[in-house]
Amino acid sequence: MSAMTEQTDPMIAIQGLHKTFTLHTQNGATISALQSLDLTVSGGECVVVRGASGAGKSSLLRCVYGNYRAGGGAIWVRHQGAMVDVAKAEPRTILDMRRTTMGFVSQFLRVIPRIPTLDLVMEPLLTAGRSAEEAREQAGTILTHLNLPQRLWSLAPATFSGGEQQRVNIARAMVWDYPVLLLDEPTASLDRENRAAVVELILAARSRGAAILGVFHDREAGDAVATDTIELRANRLAA
Ligand SMILES: Nc1ncnc2c1ncn2[C@@H]1O[C@H](COP(=O)(O)OP(=O)(O)O)[C@@H](O)[C@H]1O
Ligand SMILES: [Mg+2]
Question: With a 6 A CB cut-off, is 51 part of the ligand 1 pocket?
Answer without folding.
Answer: yes
